[in-house]
Amino acid sequence: MNARIFIQAFSSVSAMGGALNAHAEVLRSGQSPGMGLATTWRKKSAPAFVGAVEGQFPSIRNKEHDTRNNRILQASLTAIETNIQTTIATIGHSRFAIVAGTSTSGIAEAEDALLCRPPGEISDDYEYARQEFGSPAAFLADLLGTTGPSFALSTACTSSSNAFISARRLLRQGVADAVLVVGADSLCRTTVEGFIALEAVATDRCQPMSANRKGINIGEGASVFLLSRESGPLELLGVGESCDAYHLSSPDPQGRGAEAAMRAALHDAGLVATDIDYVNLHATGTIKNDQMESLAMARVFPAGVTCSGTKPLTGHALGAAGAIEAALCCVAITDNIIPPHIWDGQPDPDLPPLRLAGLGQCFPPAARRICMTNNFAFGGSNVSLIFSATR
Q1: pTM of the model
Q2: pLDDT mean across residues, the chain
Q3: Domain 5-228 sits in which CATH superfamily?
């Protein structure tokens, strides 16, 4: 059953802010409050340029679920909780599913427990379940009291993009009548130090596609989407995925897996390249990613398409990146703001030229505002999603 899949409501918390209107304002200004140097996330308090979610978040009652990851997720959920509760009341707790994407879950809390322990010991009150990848989904099922399918995916930077694909499958197969799609990831020492060890981290704001790029910024955040078969304001038009398995941590230099995912999404949506009005690039700001993605874009969109990378505004939120960038596409559609590409304006002459969006751009009056978003992960996992306003 190829039923149409609609977004009833969505929300997002990231370095851009804690509300959708804050995200829209950052897209207009290009100034993201959570991007900057921090000394919290590295050993010996060394500075790192990250995309952090600002503010304090209340603790979670169930200690098993009390992690920064889930606190940020709860903050994002709050904005659409009324929509969620209304849906549950209508369809029943057993017909409501949850699919989460994450790559860190509660690793930060595990780090704290290990760093604070005497040698060979660990705190008696540490809850091992906190660091499980399934924690965000289990937390939400416990919080909402739902009994339908509830699980998490962890495929590195495509985790929450893949969550959309799984959610659509649950809806089309009639396993659930509504699905909460979640992406949540939080900053921790393991990821920041790990990417530094790979020599992939910039010491200031990342500049994807620039000749002067220095690498990525790690970020954090959470986005939540309520999906169903009932008509809503936004629609998930198409999905595409591939796995090229080229290398554990490097993409196929020619971008063949990325190209396959984009073409699969277009075919799934019944669209051609010229139907797309905007593409949110994965655009990490590393040499290898920028090279392969620009090559793939040039082949899929030979006539060009307006595009941008938004990680200079959010940081690379790893498993949550797909959901956060999907939320930015949805903000673009609803608020008529094309996300800007924030950089120094110095294109890499070795890359195929891309039509990168500047500040203040809007969709043409006749545009359907069809947006594609790309995420490419370690291990060769590639996902493209296509969204639009409902017609």
Answers
A1: 0.96
A2: 94
A3: Thiolase/Chalcone synthase (3.40.47.10)
